[in-house]
Amino acid sequence: MSSGTLPTGRIPAPVSRFIGRDGEVRAVLGALAGYRLVTLTGPGGSGKTRLAIEAARQDRRRVVYVDLTGLPDGAPIAPAVSEAAGLRGATGPGALSEVAWWLDSGEPRLLVLDNAEDVLAPVTEFATVVLTQVESVTLMLTSRRPAGVVGEHLVLVGPLSDDDAERLFWDRARSVRPAFPDDEGARSAARELCRRLDRLPLALELAAARMKVLTPGEMLPLLEGSFEALGVNSANPERHRTLTACIEASTRELSPHLASVLVNASVFASPFSASSAADVAGATLSDLEDLVSRSLLQTSTDRGATRFRELESVRDFARSRMAAPGELAAARDRHLNWLHRRFGSGVYPSVMQRSGYASATDLLPELRTALDHALAADVRRGMELLAATGELWFRVAQDECLQRTGRFLTARPDPDEARGAVLLTRVWMLISNQRWEDALEALAEALRLLPADGDAAASAHFFGAVANFLAGHFDASRDSGARALERYVALGDVAGQSRAIGTRGTGLVLAGRNEEGLAVLERALSLAEEAGDVWSQGQIQTYAGLAVSELGRTTAARRRLFDAIDRFRRIGDISLMGIALGRLASLALTQDLRAALRAAGSASRRQGAGGRYHPVTMKDMALIRETALRALPAAEVDALWAAGERLAFADAADELRAVDARSPGDLTPRETEVAALVADGLSNAAIAHRLVLSERTVENHVGRAMAKAEVGNRTALAAWFSGRSASQNPRW
Q1: Contact 403, 439 (CB under 8 A)
Q2: Of 88-92, 224-228, 565-569, where does mean pLDDT reach its minimum?
């Protein structure tokens, strides 16, 4: 039989544009060049078939394409391959041998077996025979599950990138509605729609078809709790006509236990670990591996650890179509209990425990889910969880936390310790919103409910000190701070002592007693470093920077404020970073007005943390804007401010750092000239001779330069100047 006279299974001709997946196409072609069995695997609707077809079109070998859809379970696949290849009579028991003989022509061939998941056993048998007997053939499978054949190379096909998903949606939407509305509102809704649909091509195609009669904004609410609004594409194979049918085909063969694991894991709101899945969903590693192999769980890596997640569509299906009565409620109870244990089991945390809890920002979606459930199922447990995680909420979601504390306090008015602890969290959020008198009122109630000793009482007095100094009650602040310090000393809590002392120093700074405040803050900083309390270190350096800038030592102020930002950055905290950024922006006004304006715009948004700034920072913002309006057109000021609002705090700080690096400090031109000569190794006498100055005048310039650089001798001044000017400045 001559292979040259036989037709091959044609690759299906595309009826629409192939969009995106450039990297995935290259990955598939690279895999086909290096492996003889390549399986494209991924969740239903992820576009495995379309990707395989595109890669096959670009491959240089002769291609035989076989669609295995509809083949009876367990049926041999050699007859289907024979039919696709145009072979006659290769349908009986010897079909596999005859197909292998035909393939063994010496000509390189690519055999594509599409939709193999329902006939994996016969596919595995076929692949084993072909791979061992026909060296010139490469197999490419598409399947939700790997074939498990020795030598198989997997290419994971997941959701589209954000940009590709939007491009696909808009392309398909305009194909059914050429005059589709295209404005910022529609774009924003489409982005959210793509996210809600997991950026799955099938879901996006179905949604785009609905754009004949809907806009993205109109479709979004229809998807809440159900994907049925996506509708039907009757041109697709039956299991791809709806997203629900696609997922149903993936879950049909699950054992009762695996189905239960999938349902229970649907309560997670974000990627979860294997240990979390064991606690909440009763999943073993084997269970997780099985669900991953079926593309019902997706995997990712976060800081060296594997994380699992269900796509939104799978979660919705598991909850609405698979859950037994009461099963979800029980899973949500376990989820709440898991977080309750994770955050102290109801014991009010110490300062460093709170700080450690605050680093778990990745669990914020889980906290939201658990707290929502607790309001209906276990209010006290929810209150204990909310109280334990107060610092986390303070750092990233102050306004949301304020609302949540109000709901819990209303739901359970019992005058007990749990209420007192939630009141403390509420006090913190009220302070961040500059509602100091409300904070003091809530604090008074909390103190009546909490034990007189322990971490909660110490924290209450600490918050009292903060609220009082912000409200201008400096004597009351001093008294509360002293009580907090006394309790933290009794507890042996060095971090607490640092925060209590730091509060005293901060109050002195805000009262205008900057030198005195600096001395207190230095003591607090030493304790914070001893305790390893990075957040407290950043807070102390922020207010020390404000104090130093008020004293006119701008170089030292910048150094302190940048250090504060760096410390906050290390722990992912944004709660106070905006204060440091605002002052740095005001100090940059004479260096780079536009950069200062962008930084102020960034600080004004508070990066989504909520709350409001103290009047000191608001004054910085107002100064920057007023200065800019005197120098620039109002339209440019507004544009720069708006551009800054899109900048993260850390990025805005980096811009200011670059500005700062271009200047050797706030030295006068003559001081700069003298400092440069000091850095060159000249003595005062030599500098005086070079610049035609008296030696006493040079000595004065050196002294002022050392004071501004905050260094104690000429050697240190030379090192400071060289380090600041080497990269950007020529020798003066």
Answers
A1: no
A2: 88-92
pLDDT of residue 90: 63
Distance CA 417, CA 427 (A): 15
Instruction: Please state, in angstroms and rounded to a whole number, the distance separating the CA atoms of residues 352 and 534.
Output: 10
In order, the DSSP letters of 593-632 are HHHHHHHHHHHHHGGG------HHHHHHHHHHHHHHHHHS
Q: Is 70 left (phi over 0), alpha (psi -120 to 50) or beta?
A: left
Distance CA 491, CA 496 (A): 9
Q: How much of the chain, in percent, has pLDDT values that exceed 70?
A: 93
Using pLDDT thresholds of 50, 70 and 90, give the confidence band for residue 172: very high
Whether 272 and 308 have beta carbons less than 8 Å apart is answered as yes
> What token pair was written down for 519?
């001395």
Other beta carbons within 10 Å of 346 = 17
Compute the distance between CA of residue 214 and CA of residue 713 in angstroms, rounded to an integer.
73
Smallest CA-to-CA distance from 241 within 257, 254, 255, 230 is with: 230
Q: Model's pTM, two decimal places?
A: 0.79
Q: Which of 154-158, 406-410, 717-721 has the lowest mean pLDDT?
A: 717-721
- Token pair of 178 as six digits: 């050429």
Q: In this predicted structure, which of 9-18, 211-220, 282-291, 337-346 has the lowest mean pLDDT?
A: 9-18
Closest C-alpha to 571, from 533, 526, 542, 599: 533
- Quick one: 192 exposed, middle or buried, by C-beta within 10 A (0-12, 13-18, 19+)? middle
pLDDT at residue 14, as a whole number: 85
Contacts of 67 (CB under 8 A, 6+ apart): 12, 114, 115
Whether the pLDDT of residue 107 is over 90: the answer is no
Strand 152-156 relative to strand 37-41, pairing: parallel
Confidence of residue 607 (pLDDT cuts 50, 70, 90): low
Residues 72, 185 contacting (CB under 8 angstroms): no
Contact between 211 and 255 (Cβ < 8 Å): no
Q: Which of 353-357, 531-535, 543-547, 714-718 has the lowest mean pLDDT?
A: 714-718
- Mean pLDDT, residues 14-30 taken together: 93
Question: How far is 412 from 284, CA to CA, in rounded Å?
Answer: 37
Q: Does residue 557 contact residue 548 with C-beta atoms inside 8 Å?
A: yes
Distance CA 353, CA 338 (A): 17
DSSP-derived pairing of the beta strands 62-67 and 109-114: parallel
Task: For the beta carbon of residue 532, count every other beta carbon within 10 angstroms.
Answer: 12
585 φψ region: left (φ > 0), alpha (ψ -120 to 50), beta (else): alpha
The tokens for 85 are 């290849």
Q: Could you read off the pLDDT of 472-502 as tens digits, one per residue? A: 888 899 999 999 999 999 999 999 999 999 9
Whole-angstrom distance, CA of residue 66 vs CA of residue 359:
52
d(CA 223, CA 231): 11
Non-local (6+) Cβ contacts of 188 within 8 A are none
Helix-strand-coil split of the chain, %, nearest 5:
65, 5, 30
CA distance 450 to 570: 33
Q: Where are the beta strands (DSSP E) in 665-706?
A: none
Length of the chain: 732
Helix, strand counts (H, E) of the chain: 37, 7
Q: Angle CA(444)–CA(445)–CA(451) in degrees, nearest 5? A: 95
Q: Which two tokens stand for residue 113?
A: 């077996």
Question: From the centroid of its chain, how far is CA 614?
Answer: 28
Record the tokens describing residue 314, joined without a space.
Answer: 């799978």
